[in-house]
User: What shape does this take?
Amino acid sequence: MNILMAASECVPFVKIGGLADVVGTLPNYLQRLGNDVRIILPKYKSIDDKKYKLETLPLKLSVDVAGNKESFNIKTCKTSQVTVYFIDNMHFFYRDGIYGSDFGDFGDNRERYIFFCKAVLESAKALGFKPDIIHCHDWQTGLIPAYLKTVMKYDKFFWKTSTVFSIHNIAYQGSFAADTVVAAGFSWQDFTPDKLEFYNKVNFMKCAISLSDAVSTVSPTYSLEIKEFNGLGMEVVLNSRQDKIYGILNGIDYDYWNPKKDKNIAANFSKEDLSGKKTCKSDLQSLCGLEMNPNTYLFGCVSRLDHQKGFDIIIDAMYKLKNENMQFVILGSGDRSIRYELEKAASQMKNIAVFFDYNEVLSHKIYAGIDAYMMPSRFEPCGLSQMIALSYAGIPIVNRTGGLSDTIVYYNHFSKEGNGFTFNITYGENFVQTIYKSEKIFRDKNNWNTLVNNAINCKFSWDNSAIQYNEIYKNLSAYKEF
Ligand code: ADP
Ligand code: GLC
Assistant: This one.
């Protein structure tokens, strides 16, 4: 099958969060299943032409956005496995930042992603790449299924194209005023609750949920939660597509997140020989200006600074645990008020190190050096950080929600089963108490070694998930042929 993956992030080119990891990895596995997979992305200013050897194709294209003609080029490169296209337009993508600046989202995000959705469809035609499936990710690509079911319904080029829409985070929906109908070039006839309309607005995510041929989300538990209570207003829409919603757990790229050959960390280690982890811990403590004590229980967190991730819970815990033999290292970028609270905590307590940056190398050092990984997310569609932590023998302590419920099992020191520690905020269970319980195991070397061994042996590989996506694609294509 021909598969076009449309997304606003993809490693190694541009990354804000886990969406980029998924879009950069899943296509390789789908390609290995015999598909021709191509990825299509915006060409942001930060994507370096020289570094990725981008070539500009001899095509001059344009689409109409809010009454303006927007011209663009297509740039391309090949990763080790798949071809990647970049929609290149100065006006919308040559600026600092991806979705916004320090002061919030860009004011023209509506136009930017209307443009991107239209340009994706126009590019497929110009490239002569007839997709069996366009797999769209998150709200930024939400209008693609909508165009194909409305104004482009009779477009011969796409007659056998089906769309799959993956929800990575329902908290970001792309909701804009009703006049988006005009700006995006739809017809008012389609401004109805079953198509474009949602509370008298055009909500890109709702359009995609209603109008794509199949909807997936990134863990089985999140797929249930968003239908029942965590859909942020989208519950009814999701329930109307009940039979077409799939929960498929993400994996991680174990070639990349591999402590055995990771060049960013102070010493390599593996499940057979964990001794290098001790070196990574002391290296991280020294880099962070923390006391270099192997007996101190060292926690880490690498995350977007966002309400979702439960930073209020982490900060509260750090104050409550300030007199314990514990240290905390946090790397994050995002919300300024969270940054302020973290800075304040770090200025008051010597056992905390905070870094406000997007820093790939440091993130590896943190995963490799810590004993435990803090992830008290208030909600979590899947979560990759806890999987990464496991692969570097860091023990996740997580709130039991979404994908965290599907991946982390409380360590039972009788049966010796489990790979981390969980608590449930909704049931009033407490992060600090869970940390104390985990500390008991940390200080009991036999149990801790068993737990670490369980953790590093966990595998959330893409093989299985790619097969599940492939099945969805095959069923949709078979239906079109029919
Ligand atoms: P989300 O997608 O909600 O941000 P995930 O756990 O799915 O959360 O994925 C987060 C990914 O982004 C992980 O690969 C994590 O290591 C990475 N990451 C987040 N913040 C940073 C940062 N400041 N520097 C480096 N990597 C980061
Ligand atoms: C989103 C979610 C995260 C998920 C990632 C990749 O950013 O917040 O839980 O792991 O997408 O699907």
In short: The chain has a mean pLDDT of 97. Residues 61 and 72 are 5 Å apart (CA to CA).
